[in-house]
Amino acid sequence: MTIRLQEFQRRRRELMEQMEPNSIAILAAAPERTRNRDVEHPYRQDSDFWYLSGFPEAEAVMVLLPGREHGEYVLFCRERDRAREIWNGYRAGPEGAVADYGADDAFPINDIDDILPGLVEGRERVYYDLGRDAAFDSRLMGWINTIRERVRTGAQPPGEFVALSHLLHDMRLFKSKAETELMRQAAQISAGAHVRAMQAVRPGMYEYQLEAEYLHEFMRHGARSPAYPSIVGGGANGCILHYIENSAPLKDGDLVLVDAGCELHNYASDITRTFPINGKFSGEQRALYELVLASQYAAIEATHTDNHWNVPHETVVRILTEGLVDLGLLAGNPDDLIEEQAYQRFFMHRTGHWLGLDVHDVGDYRIGGEWRQLEPGMTLTVEPGLYIAPDDDTVEERWRGIGIRIEDDVLVTKEGCDVLTRDVPKAIDDIEALMREARA
Ligand code: GLY
Ligand code: MN
Ligand code: MN
């Protein structure tokens, strides 16, 4: 299942209802990006643009004009072109934009300079996110200046620019039933990939070979891309938070940390598991892993509507700090150590982030200076970790070079929360049993 036309229409209506009278919203499709000569990066539509249109093509601009008699939703897009379509694939064209994507009115993108100033003229406010696409910002200013040049003939340029993201990103934060279902599917595919990797890993494999297991599993289930470059870090590489080289051999006795999740119909999943390359945790690995896992269970437990955004993080910080003291990795009183943020030497990132069309999804974390209350429909990650740098000579050598993160995707519900990624084991016994069976 994907998102239906009616849902895109409902989103546009909901946004337009919140816009001030006599305003206009303008959004540009993501630009195509060159990878290297004659080769482009695979195209991914801008998430805001996609959220409101479902239109997958580059070189498109959507315009929302609440109350416009000839239609409130105008889409500019590339014209059909037989020769170009033979080389680069199907285009909807303005006809398809109306027939298949629900635009009220559609025009060739090449005519935008002539048409757009006329649509903006007379509207007091423009909802637009300045600063995200410099090239488009400058074109938009050009159209506004065209109107300004005509004031003596009675033209009325807009007086105000308003950040569209204030309204739109709050809408995106609350997932609909259809979005939740897609995210659940994405989570299940990624969970299956982590299971496959736990079964497949062997000492001597290269990190990229383990990465291939993920990509294979994502794609064969219809998720054509990871939601972000996969992180596959064996041993001390697990301590590099955004390690994506994935080029080293995996060693007997080390852990491997894998942060990998697929994107399905533009919705992200984001899972991390850390497991022993030879199938069995060592004493130190086990001690640190149990600590991270205990903090993760407690943070998931704390993810419910009675709590604000930061409670799961505060829960993790307390459990990790107390545990690090117990293990002798920190010395002092836990309250003081938390106050001094001493844990940051070993846990230097946040416990989670919103998840949706973007892996680090949009939505405010604070409102009016206060942490935001959790509400049903919000989707987030819970991902505590501990990373003992290989060269940290303030700790005993046996701990050094161990990096652990455990990350799940969670939907806030009325009753508490639903762990979308529950199909991949994380308890030590379950991981070891799964790996043992795969080796039998
Ligand atoms: N994979 C990015 C993150 O966990 O935030
Ligand atoms: Mn992640
Ligand atoms: Mn994450």
From TrEMBL:
Pfam families: AMP_N, Peptidase_M24. Residues 3-137 form the Aminopeptidase P N-terminal domain. Its EC number is 3.4.11.9. The keyword Hydrolase applies. It comes from the Bacteria. The keyword Oxidoreductase does not apply. NCBIfam families: PRK10879.1. Belongs to the peptidase M24B family. This is Xaa-Pro aminopeptidase. The lineage of its organism: Bacteria, Pseudomonadati, Pseudomonadota, Gammaproteobacteria, Oceanospirillales.
